[in-house]
What does this fold into?
Amino acid sequence: MDEISRDGLTLTKYGMLFIEDYETAVIADLHIGYEDVMSSKGIFLPRIQKRFLIERLEVIIDKYQPRQLIINGDFKHEFSRNMRQEWDEIEEVLDFLSTRVDVVVVRGNHDNFLKTILGRRGLTLYDKYTIGRYTMVHGHREHEVRPITIIGHEHPSISLRDELSATVKVPCFLYSPDLIVLPAMSIYASGTDITKNEFISPILQKNKRDFEIYGIDEHMGVLPMGRLSSLPAPSEDYPPLR
It folds into this structure.
């Protein structure tokens, strides 16, 4: 199925969480400019991510008709400055969105200097953003979970291995009634393997939850994959890929 609804929220196969009461789409971890950063280190990747992101956003907007779209951190990739690719591609994404939806941007740990780009368009860079009972923070800093907190940062994924030891990582949502973790939107964000139960977000380190796991796949849709507590230990076999 393309989506699963939980308590007024829709988890979609596009890595977007839709807050139904507020007609609001929430995404995280686009990491625009990743290819340029890697090329500066001598690793050359095809520059396909911007096109993928715009196509994905177009599908999301056409299908869900959001009034507002929240980018919940790590819009850009480079920590120390605004690289040329980042600047150009962020502006192209904002140009695409500006006539279609109201844009809100929450600061992530990669978003140093993003304020400069957003300021040219009169957009604010928020440390957190709240609508009703939902608070969006990126997740790289400690934050009190109240009453429903939505974070990114972790890039959660689950590793699946078949009987021949072929392994694939599946991005996933982590869901609990008061704390939700978004998958990364970037095609280059392989993700934190939650089968190891070692989280990088201080929010997740401090607030243990027996999350429900929802994998996402462009073709298979949203895949209920049980609870975090049901995962085998890293030393055991991974769940088979079927």
About this structure: The radius of gyration is 17 Å. Residues 206 and 226 are 22 Å apart (CA to CA). The chain has one domain: 3-230.
